[in-house]
Protein backbone atom coordinates (compact mmCIF):
# COMPACT_ATOMS: atom_id res chain seq x y z
CA UNK A 1 0.00 0.00 0.00
CA UNK A 2 1.45 3.41 -0.99
CA UNK A 3 1.94 6.19 1.59
CA UNK A 4 -0.81 8.24 -0.07
CA UNK A 5 -3.24 5.33 -0.12
CA UNK A 6 -2.46 4.47 3.49
CA UNK A 7 -2.99 8.08 4.57
CA UNK A 8 -6.34 8.17 2.74
CA UNK A 9 -7.38 4.91 4.39
CA UNK A 10 -6.48 6.26 7.83
CA UNK A 11 -8.36 9.50 7.12
CA UNK A 12 -11.49 7.56 6.18
CA UNK A 13 -11.14 5.24 9.18
CA UNK A 14 -10.95 8.21 11.55
CA UNK A 15 -13.91 9.93 9.90
CA UNK A 16 -16.03 6.76 10.02
CA UNK A 17 -15.10 6.04 13.64
CA UNK A 18 -15.99 9.60 14.68
CA UNK A 19 -19.26 9.43 12.75
CA UNK A 20 -20.13 6.05 14.28
CA UNK A 21 -19.58 7.44 17.78
CA UNK A 22 -21.80 10.44 17.01
CA UNK A 23 -24.51 8.21 15.54
CA UNK A 24 -24.42 5.90 18.56
CA UNK A 25 -24.77 8.93 20.82
CA UNK A 26 -27.75 10.15 18.79
CA UNK A 27 -29.33 6.69 18.96
CA UNK A 28 -28.80 6.57 22.74
CA UNK A 29 -30.72 9.85 23.05
CA UNK A 30 -33.48 8.84 20.65
CA UNK A 31 -33.81 5.37 22.24
CA UNK A 32 -33.58 6.12 25.97
CA UNK A 33 -33.71 3.30 28.53
CA UNK A 34 -37.26 2.98 29.82
CA UNK A 35 -38.63 1.90 33.14
CA UNK A 36 -41.89 0.05 33.53
CA UNK A 37 -43.54 -2.67 31.52
CA UNK A 38 -42.04 -1.56 28.17
CA UNK A 39 -38.46 -1.74 29.48
CA UNK A 40 -37.65 -5.14 27.84
CA UNK A 41 -38.74 -3.82 24.45
CA UNK A 42 -36.54 -0.73 24.75
CA UNK A 43 -33.66 -2.90 25.93
CA UNK A 44 -33.98 -5.08 22.82
CA UNK A 45 -34.22 -2.03 20.55
CA UNK A 46 -31.08 -0.53 22.08
CA UNK A 47 -29.28 -3.89 21.90
CA UNK A 48 -30.06 -4.11 18.18
CA UNK A 49 -29.32 -0.52 17.22
CA UNK A 50 -26.53 0.81 19.45
CA UNK A 51 -22.92 -0.30 19.12
CA UNK A 52 -21.27 -2.40 16.42
CA UNK A 53 -21.54 -2.13 12.68
CA UNK A 54 -19.72 0.17 10.29
CA UNK A 55 -22.54 2.76 10.20
CA UNK A 56 -21.97 2.99 6.45
CA UNK A 57 -25.53 4.19 5.81
CA UNK A 58 -25.39 6.77 8.56
CA UNK A 59 -21.97 7.93 7.37
CA UNK A 60 -23.39 8.40 3.88
CA UNK A 61 -26.13 10.64 5.29
CA UNK A 62 -23.60 12.76 7.20
CA UNK A 63 -21.22 13.12 4.26
CA UNK A 64 -24.03 13.93 1.84
CA UNK A 65 -25.35 16.55 4.24
CA UNK A 66 -21.87 18.05 4.60
CA UNK A 67 -21.85 18.84 0.88
CA UNK A 68 -24.70 21.31 1.48
CA UNK A 69 -23.77 22.73 4.92
CA UNK A 70 -26.71 20.99 6.64
CA UNK A 71 -26.69 21.26 10.44
CA UNK A 72 -25.00 18.32 12.12
CA UNK A 73 -27.95 17.79 14.48
CA UNK A 74 -30.39 17.42 11.59
CA UNK A 75 -28.07 15.09 9.69
CA UNK A 76 -27.48 12.95 12.79
CA UNK A 77 -31.22 12.51 13.31
CA UNK A 78 -31.62 11.24 9.74
CA UNK A 79 -28.51 9.06 10.10
CA UNK A 80 -29.94 7.57 13.29
CA UNK A 81 -33.31 6.98 11.61
CA UNK A 82 -31.79 5.04 8.72
CA UNK A 83 -29.64 3.02 11.13
CA UNK A 84 -32.83 2.12 13.04
CA UNK A 85 -34.41 0.85 9.82
CA UNK A 86 -31.24 -1.07 8.97
CA UNK A 87 -31.14 -2.55 12.49
CA UNK A 88 -34.79 -3.60 12.21
CA UNK A 89 -34.05 -5.37 8.93
CA UNK A 90 -31.14 -7.27 10.51
CA UNK A 91 -33.23 -8.30 13.52
CA UNK A 92 -35.92 -9.74 11.26
CA UNK A 93 -33.39 -11.23 8.80
CA UNK A 94 -31.79 -13.19 11.62
CA UNK A 95 -35.05 -14.79 12.80
CA UNK A 96 -35.53 -18.56 12.38
CA UNK A 97 -38.24 -17.92 9.76
CA UNK A 98 -35.73 -15.99 7.64
CA UNK A 99 -31.97 -16.66 7.71
CA UNK A 100 -31.91 -18.30 11.18
CA UNK A 101 -28.64 -16.73 12.37
CA UNK A 102 -27.37 -16.63 15.93
CA UNK A 103 -24.47 -14.18 15.50
CA UNK A 104 -24.59 -10.56 14.36
CA UNK A 105 -21.90 -7.88 14.73
CA UNK A 106 -19.92 -10.30 16.87
CA UNK A 107 -22.64 -10.88 19.47
CA UNK A 108 -25.77 -13.05 19.83
CA UNK A 109 -28.64 -12.00 17.60
CA UNK A 110 -31.63 -10.34 19.24
CA UNK A 111 -33.87 -13.42 19.24
CA UNK A 112 -31.07 -15.37 20.95
CA UNK A 113 -30.26 -12.64 23.50
CA UNK A 114 -33.97 -12.06 24.25
CA UNK A 115 -36.58 -14.26 22.52
CA UNK A 116 -38.31 -14.45 19.14
CA UNK A 117 -41.41 -12.48 20.09
CA UNK A 118 -39.35 -9.66 21.61
CA UNK A 119 -37.11 -9.61 18.54
CA UNK A 120 -40.12 -9.22 16.23
CA UNK A 121 -41.52 -6.40 18.35
CA UNK A 122 -38.11 -4.70 18.62
CA UNK A 123 -37.76 -4.72 14.83
CA UNK A 124 -41.29 -3.37 14.37
CA UNK A 125 -40.70 -0.64 16.94
CA UNK A 126 -37.35 0.41 15.46
CA UNK A 127 -38.95 0.82 12.05
CA UNK A 128 -41.89 2.88 13.27
CA UNK A 129 -39.73 5.01 15.57
CA UNK A 130 -37.42 5.86 12.65
CA UNK A 131 -40.33 7.55 10.86
CA UNK A 132 -41.32 9.38 14.05
CA UNK A 133 -37.80 10.85 14.16
CA UNK A 134 -37.95 11.94 10.51
CA UNK A 135 -41.37 13.54 10.97
CA UNK A 136 -40.40 15.66 13.99
CA UNK A 137 -39.60 19.35 13.58
CA UNK A 138 -36.14 18.93 15.10
CA UNK A 139 -35.14 17.06 11.92
CA UNK A 140 -35.96 20.01 9.65
CA UNK A 141 -38.11 23.14 10.03
CA UNK A 142 -39.65 22.67 6.56
CA UNK A 143 -42.51 20.14 6.66
CA UNK A 144 -42.06 19.48 2.92
CA UNK A 145 -38.50 18.31 3.55
CA UNK A 146 -39.64 16.07 6.39
CA UNK A 147 -42.38 14.60 4.21
CA UNK A 148 -39.89 13.93 1.41
CA UNK A 149 -37.54 12.14 3.81
CA UNK A 150 -40.41 9.97 5.06
CA UNK A 151 -41.59 9.26 1.50
CA UNK A 152 -38.16 8.29 0.21
CA UNK A 153 -37.18 6.12 3.17
CA UNK A 154 -40.52 4.32 3.24
CA UNK A 155 -40.19 3.60 -0.49
CA UNK A 156 -36.62 2.33 -0.03
CA UNK A 157 -37.66 0.03 2.82
CA UNK A 158 -41.00 -1.20 1.49
CA UNK A 159 -42.33 -3.64 -1.12
CA UNK A 160 -40.47 -1.90 -3.97
CA UNK A 161 -37.32 -1.80 -1.88
CA UNK A 162 -35.76 -3.77 0.95
CA UNK A 163 -38.80 -5.91 1.86
CA UNK A 164 -39.46 -6.71 -1.80
CA UNK A 165 -35.84 -7.76 -2.24
CA UNK A 166 -36.05 -10.05 0.76
CA UNK A 167 -39.17 -11.64 -0.73
CA UNK A 168 -37.38 -12.23 -4.05
CA UNK A 169 -34.45 -13.75 -2.15
CA UNK A 170 -36.76 -16.15 -0.31
CA UNK A 171 -38.62 -17.13 -3.49
CA UNK A 172 -35.36 -17.82 -5.32
CA UNK A 173 -34.12 -20.00 -2.47
CA UNK A 174 -37.38 -21.97 -2.35
CA UNK A 175 -37.50 -22.45 -6.12
CA UNK A 176 -34.02 -23.87 -6.22
CA UNK A 177 -33.62 -22.69 -9.82
CA UNK A 178 -30.62 -20.46 -10.62
CA UNK A 179 -31.30 -16.80 -11.40
CA UNK A 180 -29.57 -15.00 -14.25
CA UNK A 181 -27.39 -11.92 -13.77
CA UNK A 182 -30.23 -9.45 -14.43
CA UNK A 183 -32.54 -11.12 -11.89
CA UNK A 184 -29.82 -11.26 -9.24
CA UNK A 185 -29.01 -7.59 -9.87
CA UNK A 186 -32.65 -6.62 -9.37
CA UNK A 187 -32.93 -8.71 -6.19
CA UNK A 188 -29.82 -7.12 -4.70
CA UNK A 189 -30.80 -3.60 -5.78
CA UNK A 190 -34.05 -3.94 -3.88
CA UNK A 191 -32.76 -5.84 -0.86
CA UNK A 192 -29.62 -3.81 -0.16
CA UNK A 193 -29.22 -1.06 -2.72
CA UNK A 194 -32.36 1.01 -2.18
CA UNK A 195 -31.54 1.78 1.44
CA UNK A 196 -28.00 2.80 0.50
CA UNK A 197 -29.38 4.97 -2.32
CA UNK A 198 -31.60 6.78 0.17
CA UNK A 199 -28.69 7.25 2.57
CA UNK A 200 -26.63 8.87 -0.20
CA UNK A 201 -29.52 11.08 -1.31
CA UNK A 202 -30.77 12.12 2.14
CA UNK A 203 -28.20 14.89 2.67
CA UNK A 204 -29.26 16.51 -0.60
CA UNK A 205 -32.92 16.34 0.50
CA UNK A 206 -32.01 17.97 3.82
CA UNK A 207 -30.01 20.66 2.03
CA UNK A 208 -32.69 21.34 -0.61
CA UNK A 209 -29.98 20.75 -3.19
CA UNK A 210 -30.44 21.34 -6.93
CA UNK A 211 -31.85 18.29 -8.70
CA UNK A 212 -28.63 17.66 -10.62
CA UNK A 213 -26.65 17.28 -7.41
CA UNK A 214 -29.37 15.21 -5.77
CA UNK A 215 -29.44 12.88 -8.77
CA UNK A 216 -25.63 12.61 -8.76
CA UNK A 217 -25.64 11.45 -5.14
CA UNK A 218 -28.50 9.06 -5.85
CA UNK A 219 -26.55 7.53 -8.76
CA UNK A 220 -23.45 7.32 -6.55
CA UNK A 221 -25.50 5.47 -3.94
CA UNK A 222 -26.94 3.11 -6.55
CA UNK A 223 -23.53 1.99 -7.79
CA UNK A 224 -22.07 1.95 -4.29
CA UNK A 225 -24.93 -0.25 -3.07
CA UNK A 226 -24.43 -2.73 -5.89
CA UNK A 227 -20.68 -2.91 -5.19
CA UNK A 228 -21.34 -3.25 -1.46
CA UNK A 229 -23.58 -6.29 -1.97
CA UNK A 230 -21.06 -8.02 -4.21
CA UNK A 231 -18.36 -7.33 -1.62
CA UNK A 232 -20.63 -8.75 1.08
CA UNK A 233 -21.11 -11.91 -0.97
CA UNK A 234 -17.34 -12.16 -1.54
CA UNK A 235 -16.78 -11.90 2.21
CA UNK A 236 -19.37 -14.60 2.85
CA UNK A 237 -17.47 -16.87 0.49
CA UNK A 238 -13.92 -16.09 1.61
CA UNK A 239 -13.60 -14.96 5.26
CA UNK A 240 -14.18 -16.64 8.61
CA UNK A 241 -17.10 -15.94 10.94
CA UNK A 242 -14.61 -14.43 13.42
CA UNK A 243 -13.43 -11.87 10.86
CA UNK A 244 -16.93 -11.06 9.60
CA UNK A 245 -18.62 -10.94 13.02
CA UNK A 246 -21.44 -13.12 11.67
CA UNK A 247 -21.93 -16.57 10.20
CA UNK A 248 -20.29 -17.00 6.78
CA UNK A 249 -20.55 -19.59 4.03
CA UNK A 250 -24.32 -19.76 4.45
CA UNK A 251 -25.16 -18.35 1.02
CA UNK A 252 -23.57 -21.27 -0.79
CA UNK A 253 -25.02 -23.81 1.66
CA UNK A 254 -28.53 -22.41 1.20
CA UNK A 255 -28.17 -22.07 -2.56
CA UNK A 256 -28.79 -18.32 -2.40
CA UNK A 257 -28.67 -16.33 -5.61
CA UNK A 258 -25.51 -14.19 -5.68
CA UNK A 259 -23.29 -12.79 -8.40
CA UNK A 260 -20.35 -14.55 -6.75
CA UNK A 261 -22.11 -17.87 -7.18
CA UNK A 262 -23.02 -17.07 -10.79
CA UNK A 263 -19.82 -15.38 -12.01
CA UNK A 264 -17.17 -16.80 -9.71
CA UNK A 265 -14.86 -14.87 -7.38
CA UNK A 266 -12.63 -13.17 -9.95
CA UNK A 267 -15.37 -11.94 -12.30
CA UNK A 268 -17.48 -10.78 -9.34
CA UNK A 269 -14.52 -8.76 -8.02
CA UNK A 270 -14.05 -7.14 -11.42
CA UNK A 271 -17.74 -6.23 -11.51
CA UNK A 272 -17.48 -4.65 -8.04
CA UNK A 273 -14.42 -2.67 -9.12
CA UNK A 274 -16.26 -1.36 -12.20
CA UNK A 275 -19.19 -0.27 -10.03
CA UNK A 276 -16.85 1.54 -7.62
CA UNK A 277 -15.26 3.42 -10.53
CA UNK A 278 -18.73 4.43 -11.77
CA UNK A 279 -19.76 5.52 -8.28
CA UNK A 280 -16.74 7.80 -7.97
CA UNK A 281 -17.43 9.25 -11.40
CA UNK A 282 -20.79 10.58 -10.20
CA UNK A 283 -18.93 12.77 -7.67
CA UNK A 284 -16.98 14.80 -10.23
CA UNK A 285 -19.12 17.87 -9.59
CA UNK A 286 -18.37 17.91 -5.85
CA UNK A 287 -14.63 18.58 -6.08
CA UNK A 288 -12.50 17.92 -2.99
CA UNK A 289 -15.60 17.98 -0.76
CA UNK A 290 -16.45 14.54 -2.12
CA UNK A 291 -13.10 12.95 -1.24
CA UNK A 292 -14.40 10.96 1.73
CA UNK A 293 -17.25 9.62 -0.40
CA UNK A 294 -14.70 8.53 -3.02
CA UNK A 295 -12.61 6.84 -0.32
CA UNK A 296 -15.76 5.14 0.99
CA UNK A 297 -16.39 3.64 -2.45
CA UNK A 298 -12.89 2.13 -2.43
CA UNK A 299 -13.36 0.92 1.15
CA UNK A 300 -16.53 -0.91 0.13
CA UNK A 301 -14.56 -3.55 -1.80
CA UNK A 302 -11.43 -3.52 0.41
CA UNK A 303 -13.12 -4.19 3.78
CA UNK A 304 -12.79 -7.49 5.64
CA UNK A 305 -16.01 -7.37 7.65
Automatic annotation (TrEMBL):
Domain of life: Bacteria
Keywords: Isoprene biosynthesis, Magnesium, Metal-binding, Transferase
Matches recorded under NCBIfam families: FPPsyn
InterPro entries documented for this protein: Isoprenoid_synthase_dom_sf (IPR008949), Polyprenyl_synt (IPR000092), Polyprenyl_synt_CS (IPR033749), Prenyl_diphosphate_synthase (IPR053378)
Pfam entry (one): polyprenyl_synt
The organism's taxonomic lineage, starting at the top: Bacteria, Pseudomonadati, Pseudomonadota, Alphaproteobacteria, Acetobacterales
Alphabetical GO biological process terms: terpenoid biosynthetic process
Listed name of the protein: Polyprenyl synthetase family protein
GO molecular function: metal ion binding; prenyltransferase activity
Matches recorded under CDD domains: Trans_IPPS_HT
Cofactor(s), by name: Mg(2+)
A single Gene Ontology CC term: cytoplasm
Family: Belongs to the FPP/GGPP synthase family.
Keyword Metal-binding among UniProt keywords: yes
Amino acid sequence: MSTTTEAASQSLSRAMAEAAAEIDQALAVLLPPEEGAEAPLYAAMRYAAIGGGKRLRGFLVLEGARQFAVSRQAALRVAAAIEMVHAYSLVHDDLPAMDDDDLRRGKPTVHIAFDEATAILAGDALQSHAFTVLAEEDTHPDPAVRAELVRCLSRAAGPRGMCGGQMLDMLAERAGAPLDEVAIGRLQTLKTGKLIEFAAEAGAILGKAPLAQRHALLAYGRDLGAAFQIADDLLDATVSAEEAGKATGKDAEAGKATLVGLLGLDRARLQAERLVAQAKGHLDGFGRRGDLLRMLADFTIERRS
